[in-house]
Design goal:
2 domains
Length: about 120
């Protein structure tokens, strides 16, 4: 799920896409125009086109707010690793999310209970 376009986040380098998921590169944030964003859109087949957008990320030819061409902040997916354990016949996970599998496995070495698996989980942020 995407988040509404945020020009400050985009300026800070956060990933932006079109509402329908196409790749976006913002080339300019300050065009002298009613549409100050100069943006390259990349289609699935690799074809690119240039267009102007409002500061709110609205497509210049359709500023109603519901165009698939409008800009949104891309959903960022982060992968974490957790250990699954068993104790007294019950399975549970450790409360710590690790950024690498190696870090999760290092935690397992330090715990004196039955380890079942180390698994990855993905969280939309």
């Amino acid at each position: 799920m995407s988040k509404p376009f945020n020009i400050e986040a985009a300026k800070a380098g956060k990933k932006v896409t079109t509402r329908d998921g196409r790749e976006v590169e913002i080339l300019k944030f300050d065009l002298k125009s009613n549409y100050p964003l100069g943006v390259v859109i990349t289609e699935e087949d690799g074809v690119q086109w240039l267009n102007e957008y409002t500061e709110e990320g609205l497509f210049s030819f359709d500023v109603r707010g519901d165009s698939p061409n409008n800009l949104v902040m891309a959903t960022e997916i982060t992968t974490y690793w957790v250990n699954v354990y068993e104790k007294d016949g019950r399975k549970y996970t450790a409360p710590t999310l690790h950024s690498t599998k190696e870090a999760a496995l290092a935690e397992y070495v330090n715990i004196d209970i039955k380890w079942i698996a180390t698994v990855s989980i993905e969280i939309e942020e």
